[in-house]
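NAD(P)H-dependent oxidoreductase: structure tokens wanted.
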Amino acid sequence: MKTLIVYAHPEPKSLNHSLAELAVTTLEAAGHEVQVTDLYASNWKAALDASDYGPAASSPLRVAADSGRAFDTGTLTADVSIEQEKLLWADTIIFQFPLWWYSMPAILKGWVDRVFTYHFAYGVGEHSDTKYGERYGEGTLAGKRALLSVTVGGPEAHYSDRGINGPIDDLLFPIHHGILYYPGIDVLPPFVVHGSDRLTAEEYAVAAKNWERRLLELETTEPIAFRKQNFGDYEMPSLRLKEGLEERGQSSFALHVRPPFTPDEGPRV
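Answer:
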């Protein structure tokens, strides 16, 4: 297995850095190939602008069209092209980061903004009244798997179904579904370390053991069963979920995850 780790934390002595290093040693010891993108150490340019597209940039700037033209003509900046090559190389992508203000650090969002260009990560396939492009389960990155390894400051109860911060699955849905599943990547259930600001040595040892186990199960872990866009669950062209497909009580983000199948139904595809 080939794994790309995209790591975003400014402190080399942080818990996030320890988890990233543990991922490298665990995977390499198991015979896997690993590459690491350390965004802070590499001084990654987070802000997307016209300089990313060279001669393909228009005036006024049109981010989607210009990024696609730069991708097609090979005029993206070298740092972006290198990251795209890493993504194409990888079977699995691990994102290691702290949850800051209900989301990923700005530098990691900037990596997404710049690397996931038009024609590379989106804007592909047929666009018509019956098919709105190849996305949400299809696309240029289909067949790859991704895992978020996230540290959060609060205890697990704060991120539960009735917790003050909201369910962790809901907080991560924009990343899981909107960034990763959109270009076709299968998304694994996240690895979350709660109470990260007050972790004792004993608690870290438990977290590290759990992290090692998750890493060694990357190839066999079932992905989140997000519904595919073009496989019959959504009305066209409105892309609203068809009535009657949800389980009782399913609502909001959870509507876009297929309910578990029963033995007499057989697996859903």
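Residues 169 and 190 are 8 Å apart (CA to CA). The mean pLDDT is 94.

Cheers.
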